[in-house]
Write the structure tokens for this entry.
Amino acid sequence: MSTCTSQNPPAVERRRGDTHSRPTRVPVVDAVIVGGGPAGLSAALVLGRARQRVLVLDTGRPANAASNGIGGLLAQTGVAPSDLRRAGREQLAGFPNVEVRDGAVLDAAALAEGYGVKLESGEAVHTRSLVLTHGLRYDPPALPGVEALWGRSVFHCPFCDGWEVRDLSLAVLGSGPDAARSALVVSGWSRDVVLLTDGPARLNGERAALQDAGVRVREERIREVVGSEGWLQRIEFVEGPAEQRDALFVRTNRGQPNGIAAALGCELTAGDTIVTDGDGRTAVPGVYAAGDAATENFRSVANAIGAGSRVAQRVALDLV
Ligand SMILES: Cc1cc2nc3c(=O)[nH]c(=O)nc-3n(C[C@H](O)[C@H](O)[C@H](O)COP(=O)(O)OP(=O)(O)OC[C@H]3O[C@@H](n4cnc5c(N)ncnc54)[C@H](O)[C@@H]3O)c2cc1C
């Protein structure tokens, strides 16, 4: 007998007859995947192929939504983020044991066996395991003009977008030694880099290295970042001449996009990512995390796809 608390069980349960014959288990699905970005869709693919009953929920707000194309993804460079997700969903449509739905997971709580998951639609789903692939929230600096250019010509990661703006006029925003280091890193993509500190530079010994790399430093207060149709044109200061630039690199504040991991008792790092072992297992039994949500450094689509694949194999093995 199913213990699903929903009036309207998920299609994965209704379609059980389509799937490999197996004894009915108490929970309705084997895995609920929270987030259908590259990590979640990759996890769903591997779990689907392992004949697990999977429900993916996705609110359709990926980290790179504003981006024109994904940089640095093997054999797929330049593909639009939405096209990659669409292709992933199309592939998953071939699995009768996998359902991908639009909508949010609101919260999840431990049951005597597995987890009860509350959906935005009002439904409740009972699952044997929970995979958190809901990504991270990226907040760019609150400078006037940045939001309209975010992901198009204002970037946070030169490994994602540096190649596309190589040899152009670039700027890096920030002060202190970390910002100086970022400017030196970006100077690997162009010899025309200016570090905009928006106030006192707070540099010590870094000035010599910046000078050697040809990086100029401007300390004037920034008034506005100006662009058109996604393209950066110039940075205007409260005083002093504007700086004509093609792209700007900034630091972001990041955090969990919801309180699900914290409510389940998952440990979070100082950078607000979910702590897991190398396979994506959290310290909370039956709860897993992968992709940006659980990646402290070097977040990318390639990493998310790989982490999703890995966590799915771990989930399938743990469910035996
Ligand atoms: C502006 C920008 C540009 C980038 N460019 C590149 C690039 O060129 N190349 C590259 O490799 N990487 C790039 N990245 C990084 C890349 O986007 C991420 O590493 C990657 O998207 C992580 O995949 P993910 O599946 O973990 O998370 P995401 O892609 O963010 O997907 C998470 C999904 O979970 C959903 N979700 C969140 N909460 C819930 C909930 N409660 N219920 C249901 N669904 C939920 C979200 O709506 C979203 O669809 C960029 C990042 C940013 C911010």
Summary: The chain has two domains: 11-138+253-319, 141-249. Residues 30 and 317 are 12 Å apart (CA to CA).
